[in-house]
Specification:
CATH superfamily of one domain: Tetratricopeptide repeat domain
Number of helices: 7
Order of helices and strands: HHHHHHH
Mean pLDDT: 79
Largest sheet: none
Helix content: 55-70%
């Protein structure tokens, strides 16, 4: 019985090696394949009129000012953030109450919900900054204040409040020069 297994294993080994020795990567019919001519690249016509614009060229920028009818009627992202929804106002009021009770962590959860409801409202970011400052996370407080300032747009009341908040946070962090810059920006408004 052992002899049969040995002969079977030897036979399989020979068949396997024979299969590996053959050229399996040769394309079929390669022996009678004729050399095909290599295609030539297209030539460029030199007599072409270059006054027509190419598809890849960008149009020249418009230099004449826009008329009032062409301007968008609603303010853009940098001009004004979103107004607060009633749900966000309610959450901010609850967060203020929690902060006055000395529970800034609970206030943060309410303010984060308000942020999801009104993600482009500067007021929400300023309140988040206050809550982070009260929980002694001054780095996050400064970042949320900066985000709120970017959303305050042309609203000078919000800008002034944001710069004053940023000045107080920077004072707490020990960044006196940054705090003075923020105070100057607030006074300029």
């Amino acid at each position: 019985m052992m002899k049969i297994y040995r002969n079977l294993a030897a036979g399989l080994l020979i068949v396997g090696l024979t299969g590996c020795a053959s050229d399996i990567y040769a394309p079929p019919g390669s022996a009678d394949r004729r050399a095909e001519p290599v295609p030539q690249p297209p030539t460029v016509d030199e007599s072409r009129d270059d006054s027509s614009p190419r598809l890849s060229e960008q149009p020249e920028p418009r230099t004449e000012p826009r008329t009032p009818q062409e301007r968008s009627p609603s303010p853009g992202y940098q001009e004004q953030g979103d107004d607060l929804s009633p749900a966000a106002v309610s959450l901010i009021q609850r967060a203020d109450a929690l902060m006055s009770e000395g529970k800034p962590e609970a206030a943060l959860s309410r303010l984060e919900r308000a942020q999801r409801i009104s993600p482009r409202s500067a007021q929400v970011y300023f309140k988040l900054a206050e809550a982070y400052a009260r929980s002694n996370n001054l780095g996050s407080a400064e970042q949320f204040t900066m985000k709120g300032l970017s959303l305050a747009g042309s609203n000078t009341r919000l800008q002034k409040a944001g710069w004053e908040l940023l000045a107080s946070i920077r004072h707490e962090r020990g960044n006196v020069a940054g705090a003075e810059q923020a105070e100057q920006r607030a006074r300029a408004l």
